[in-house]
Amino acid sequence: MRRRGSAELPREVGVLAVVAFVVALGFGIVAPALPLFARSFGIGTTAVGLAVSAFAFFRFVSAFGGGALVERLGERVVLATGLAVVAGTTGLAGLATSFPVFLALRAAGGTGSAMFTVAALALLLRVSPPTHRGRAAATYQGGFILGGIAGPAAGGLLTTLSPRLPFFLYAGSLLVAGAVALVLLRTAPGTPDGAAPAAAPDLSEGPLPLRAALRSRAYVAALVANLGIGWVLFGVRNSLVPLYVTEELGRSAAWAGAGLLAGSAAQALGLLRSGRLADTWGRRPSLVLGSTVGTAALAVLALPPTTGLFLLSMATYGLAASLLASVPAALVGDVSPARGGRVVAVFQMSADLGAVAGPLVAGWLTDVASYQVAFAVSTAVVAAGLAAALALPRD
C-alpha cells in the first residue's frame, strides 16, 4: 500500500473527530449541572453519586450488545441511533420532576452512549489504513479532549442560569452530531456502510471472533492499557485528585483545576505527535514509552505530597495518555481490521470497567490507608499495561 501523508486520512476520520468534539462539549456542559440538578430532588449525596454512576454502569453493561448491533446493522446506523437515544433521554431528563424518572433516563442514556462509542471507533478503525491508524485514533481522541476542555467552563455559566438548561443544550448538540453523522458518513456505492475501498482494503472480511482476538497478545495488551486509561484518566483523576489537593496538599480547588487543566493540555499537545509516532516508530515501542512515562508519573503521587510534584505528575501523565489513548486503539484495528463490533466493544468495556472500579477501589484505599497507597495501587494498574506491552513481539 502506498504510504500517505497525514492530510490524506480518510474523510470519515475528520467527520468522526468533529462529532466527538460536539459530544464531549455537550457532556462537559452538563457535567457541572448534573449533581446540582439531582440535589434539587431532595436526595442525599449517595443518591447523587448513583445518578452520576448509572450512566457509566449502563454504558458498560450494554457495550457488548452495541458491538453485536454494529456487526448486524453497520456502524453508521448504530452511531446515529445511539446519539439519538442519548439526546432524547438527556432532554427528557432536563424535564424530569422526580428522581426515579431522572435516574432511569440517565441509565437509558448510558446505553445510547455505548452504541455511539463502539460504532464510532469500529468505523474509525475500519476505514483507516494500517499505516495511518495511530494518526486516525489520535485525531479522533483530539476531538474528545478539546470538547472536554471547553465544555465544563460553559456548563458552569449555564448552570448558574438554570440547572435544567445544560441538559437541553446537550440534547440539541447531540441531535446536531447525529445529523452530521447521517449526512457526512453516507454510504458509498459498492461498499458497506460508507467505507472507502482505498482506505480499508480488507472490508470483505467478516468480523473477527472475540475468542480469536483474545488469543492475540496485541489485543490483550490493548485491553490492559485501556483498563489503565479508564482507571486513571476517567476515574481516579476526576474522583480522587480534587480531594487529594484540598485535603492532602492543603490547597484550594483552583489548584486541582490547574492540575487537571495541565494534564488535559499536555495530552492535547501530545496527540499532535503520538499518532504519527505509533505509525512510524511502531506500536510496541510507542506503547512501552507511554506506559513507562505513565507509570513514572503516577508513582510520583505515591511520594510525600508537594504541589510542584503534583503539577509535574499531572502534566507528565497527560503526555503519556496521548500515547495510551491512540496506540491501543491502533492495535485493535490491526487485530480486527474488518467490522469487529464485539472486539471493539470489549476494548471499550475495559476502559469503562476501569472508570467504574478505579474510583471505588482508590476511594476505599484512601479511607482505610492513605492517598499514597491509593496512588500506588493505581500505579500498579498502569504498570500492568507496561508488562503487557513488553510482552508484545517486536515490530
Question: Summarize this, please?
Answer:
The protein is 79% helix and 0% strand. It has 395 residues and is mainly alpha-helical.
Notes on the structure:
Keywords: Cell membrane, Membrane, Transmembrane, Transmembrane helix. The chain is mainly α. The chain has two domains: 9-190, Growth Hormone, Chain: A; 206-395, MFS general substrate transporter like domains (Growth Hormone, Chain: A). It contains 16 helices and no strands. It has helices spanning 11-30, 33-39, 45-73, 75-93, 99-127, 133-161, 165-184, 210-214, 217-239, 241-248, 253-280, 283-301, 307-324, 327-335, 341-368, 371-390. Helix 3 packs parallel to helix 5 (99-127), helix 6 packs antiparallel against helix 11 and helix 9 crosses helix 15 (341-368). The longest helix has 29 residues, at 45-73. The protein is globular, with a radius of gyration of 20 Å. It starts with 10 loop residues before the first helix and ends in a 5-residue tail after the last helix. The model is unreliable at 1-7 and 188-204 (pLDDT under 50).
Strand content: under 5%
N-to-C series of helices and strands:
HHHHHHHHHHHHHHHH
Q: How many structural domains are formed by the residues? A: 2
Q: CATH H-level name of the largest domain... which superfamily? A: MFS general substrate transporter like domains
User: Which term fits the overall shape?
Assistant: globular
Helix content: over 70%
The number of helical runs is 16
Rg calculated over all Cα atoms: 20 Å
Distance between the termini: 18 Å
Provide the CATH topology of the largest domain: Growth Hormone, Chain: A
GO cellular component, one term: plasma membrane
Subcellular location: Cell membrane
Domain Major facilitator superfamily (MFS) profile: 12-395
Transmembrane segments: 12-34, 46-70, 77-97, 103-125, 137-161, 167-185, 218-234, 254-272, 284-303, 309-331, 343-365, 371-392
